[in-house]
Amino acid sequence: MNLSSPYPPRRNPLLCATLMTALFLISGCKEPPGSVPERYPSEEAIGGLLQTDTLHSSNSLAYGLAYEPSRDGAAPRLHVSDFNDDEIYIYRIDPAGLSLSERISTSALDPAFVEPRGLAYGYRRGRSYLYALTSQDADGDGTYDSTLWRVDLDASPRSVHSIDLDRPGFEISGLEVFGLTLQNDFLYVSYNSSSFPTAREQVRRGILRLRLGRSMSVKAISDLHSPNTKISLEKKRRHNRSNPESNPSDSFTLYPTAKHLPNSGREVSSGTYSRAPAFGLASMEFGSTEYLWATSYNKYLYLAHAPDGRGLFHFDSPGKKKIYGLACGDGVLWAVDRVSGPDQIHRIRITENLDTPQQWNRKVRHIQVTKSSTSKNSRDRAGLTQNLALVHPRTKRPGQNYDLLSLSRSSHPCASITYQHYDPAGDSSSRQIVVQSRYDGPISGGETITSTYDVDVVTSNFRHFVYPHRCDTSGSTEPDYLDDCSTIYRMSDTTAYAEFLDRIEEAMEEEYGSSALSTNPYWRARNILEFITEHYEYGNVSDTSSGHYAYHPSNLKMELLWDATSGNEKMSCSTSTFTLVGLCRSLGVPARWVGTSRFRSNYEDASGTEVSYDTNGDTFLGVGESSKDKPFHRWAEVWMGNAYGWQRFDPTPKSDGPRELSQYELMWKATRGVNDTDLVLTVGSGREEPFFNNRRNMQYYNAGANYDHPDDWSSDSKYVTWSNACFVEITSVSATGAGLHTLSWNLTGRWELDSSATLTLRIQPMVADGSSWVRDGSSTTLQTGLAAVSGSATVDLSGLDPGTYQLEVVKSYDSRTGAASSILTLP
Known about the structure:
With 827 residues, this protein is mainly β. The protein is built from 10 helices and 50 strands.
């Protein structure tokens, strides 16, 4: 199918209506592509804040949290340890909130039980227990004495027992411990992994799993240490019946399991910690799968797969981002947040609205996609076809959209412009529209032919929070997403594929144990991604003498990894994407590739010099400012079943590899969604002809050219130019009273594409730099949520120190759209 359309002048209603009709026929849109996408409030998705409660007035340095479920008709309770007063506060959870019901003095139970942290609740053999940690550096030498405590809540008087965590078998002697949780018969203890000598050890450790039990036989202990053995509940019951204890409340025994688990491994710079420890831990069983919630320092909360500690996804901590305790219960995640005065407890959504994506940070931009080809010979007929990928609309990709009425195209006056399309893997729901320009000459030597299109686009951060147990391969729209493509994948080389997959399994089993070898599509894609990112280094290498190409086919990159030839360890985003897609398909998991453009703060100009879009230094993307994206980016999408659909897996290696990645880095690469600075232009299954360069044997994307006579063309270039489509102009700043100032502004551009946009008013201190003033970078928010169309706002500046300032009006959640006032001097 190939539809022609006359070149429409920008915003000509009649011609644009004709163009819209043609594109509807091609794309099968069910609604106008220019309509405003629905906005998903963050609160409706995983990570949404449900409720916040304030603790007792003296509970002001919380450092641990445990949830006690309802039993015998009693209300559920929360246990909160306080680092400051050596107490554990117990709150009853009522419909109206939290009410304090009891306080336990830990130092009264044992003089050494001070500064409690990390709590866990357990109900074992008819008794309630509370577990807690202490970790103290008495002499200030950086080594800690750590203890695990157990309080029998049902004893009268209450009894306490302890275990020294400095035992050699636990392998955390001298390390500071933080968080604690109990899941079935396992206690998880988080600790500081920063002091391990290598980065590999630091990212592989951080959480210790301990078996909580009674005295057991040597054989039973051996079973516990076997990584391939899982003792059934019935076997434990038989063991307990055959080993009765006269006083079970006095029995407190721990056994270290075979290996430690990783924490997030996020790099931080906070003096004591070079890796972000987990200050809080919480366990959750969901869909018959065991999970762990943890903090990454106190800024992020993340979910991990409990059997091996592999991080799955993360989001920002709520409130003040000072999270020092986690607990799961009643279908929500509870988090202790340290604030000024009494601390707070947040309830966070984790089990509701599982399929609801999160969408935020809406931006409106203008892009121009450009393809240029330069001839080296004069010919009567040039034989040139230039193809430009049209942005995927909301109907195919909910996190982005384009305004069809703003679409305009240009090319050589003698070129014909048509619209073509292809369906990747025969999948019409992912149809790719191509703006195609055909030029047949004549042409002069050195002449450059350029084709472009311009369009206004809307982008948002968009993601699902993917629980692996909900992933499968059902519902894939087209079976052709499993097909081979000899140019791109060459899956017929079964030896290369089998050997590569064997090495992936060996690596994952060595690091994580047998639980890593799941047939679940999430884990298959995750294992492939992790192996590629850790065994390759970013870079392009083309050595045709060894059959090695920078892009494809994938089997060459797989088999060349095992020799020592320099360059064989390098992979570009395209190479790694094609490799992951081919490997997933070989395992029966549907996969495809996408090509994207990205807004870049710094880019290279025509001379190769790196420049910034911000030519006037005000940080805003103002009138006349733009950025060029020339490298582009490509990643894979893997089908995760009806619940989540196509999910992003970006296997592009780091430029400082090969090296082991932290779980935090891996969470950014697996199912993280699409950022508001990214724009998907192209989707492909295998070899897509409009963007395949026969001369260089490479699969391009976004823009490509086909030549009837390749030798007649010496060079070509492609890029996407990003600029703003919405602008703010400050018209006046006037003093209107004692300390009061009124700021007025005008709006220009495409604000109707984000009709619910609000503005934030900030004040920015300025410092002298020679004869000019420059920002000092410490702006303060004065007002937020201002209606953009209001046109003015009044602020009270009387509390500010004397000095020189600028007022700024910024589009909320879009720091590049806004304007700064003239210099304002406050006496």
